[in-house]
Amino acid sequence: MKEVLFIIEGLFGGGAERALVELLKHIDYARYNVTLGVVFAGGIYTKEIPSQVNLFHIFSDNETSFESSLRRKALRYCKKYGNTWLLKFLFRQKCKKHHFDTIISFIEGYPILFHSTICKWAKLNISWIHCDLYYQHWTTAYYHSDHDEKRCYEKMDKIVFVSRNSMESFNRLYETSNAKMHLYNIVDAENIRRLSKQKVVMHDRFTITSIGSLYKVKGYDRLVRVAKLFKDKGYTLRFQILGQGKELESLLRMRDELGLQEDVVFLGFEENPYPYLRQSDIFVSTSLSEGLSYVICEALVLGIPVVATKTSGGMELLENGKYGILTEHDDASIYEAIKKLVDSTTLCKEYQEKSLSRSNIFNIDETMARFYEII
Q: Residue 92: what pLDDT?
């Protein structure tokens, strides 16, 4: 039986975390013994981890405040001085096994930083990249320098990207000699459609939905301003945003200052967002950067017309505008793209059909077969 270790930062509700959960649900546990190391304990997806997975946390919920403080100081020390021996010590304390066939750091940042210290524990070391690091190099805060980050990637045998475009962007950022390939995340279309019918969500307005973590990279401030443009033009629309994150307070303040309390609704995190998505008229992604937007995949599966800003993942999923409307990164462009669909029932119907057609690219059996080849 093959021993595989996954490393992820947390299970708090992001697209990469969702992708990992779906992957773990489809692994053949008769062939693979899987361990999952989570840097920070907690998170809404923890309960969805299959029982066959051996789970451990580097920072546990039951640690004393003194223990937690020491570990966090160790992280800060490693980032500041580029010395990673403490990270290996922390990982060794929590991970009982020290020999694997494959180790996979499943997201950028802390997972690959920890992974880089234990590469000798495995025959094969792989990193997964879920974003476009060239256009949104958010991981710089995790490393002492760009050189240190590049060195972590150079220790990997393979780097897997969730889209072809994000792979090409990475090659513009770092020149590394390891094998690189792309593999779409698992999208369980049958399960998404089943879950979308569990709850009825009725609206009396044309409804525009967006789903994601409330961080600056998602560009939700632009969507709030676009809602104001529609209201000023006399439209009565419902903009609903599902997700949680540290930008919530500033977004609520912006909404209230613009007088949009009845027009823009923040619904928080929903374990099952699919009924909201299924009964939407349009799905909108306003992200500054995306490796491969998981929620765009879900909107396609449910046949919802998609409007998305031009990001690596969005352009690839929508095939440069063939299966959805792509916009520039400004309020006016986003407004005009949404307006086309709001003003035309015929166009909406056309893009519903295009979404369903594009969703045929998601095939679980093919994705898992390719995954097994990679690891």
A: 83
Spatial separation of the C-alpha atoms in residues 259 and 266, rounded to whole Å:
14
Percent of the chain with pLDDT over 70: 94
Domain limits, the chain: 2-183, 189-361
Vertex 186 angle, CA 184 and 188, to 5°: 140
The one-letter amino acid at 140: T
- The fold adopted by the segment(s) 189-361 is Rossmann fold (3.40.50)
Sheet holding 325-327, edge to edge: 264-268, 237-242, 206-211, 282-285, 306-309, 325-327
Give the domain 2-183 fold.
Answer: Rossmann fold (3.40.50)
Per the listing, tokens 């962007």 go with 169
- Give, in order, the Cα–Cα distances in Å from 25 to each of 45, 72, 188, 299: 12, 31, 10, 21
Q: In this structure, what DSSP letter does residue 242 have?
A: E
User: Are 244 and 213 within 8 A, CB to CB?
Assistant: yes
pLDDT digits (tens, 9 = 90+) for 164-176: 999 999 999 999 9
Separation between Cα atoms, residue 119 and residue 217, nearest integer Å: 31
Please, is 243 exposed, middle or buried when counting C-beta atoms within 10 Å of its C-beta (0-12, 13-18, 19+)? buried
Element (DSSP H or E) covering residue 346: helix 345-358
Q: In sequence order, what E strands does the chain have? A: 2-8, 32-40, 54-59, 100-105, 122-129, 158-161, 179-182, 206-211, 237-242, 264-268, 282-285, 306-309, 325-327
The pTM of this model reads: 0.88
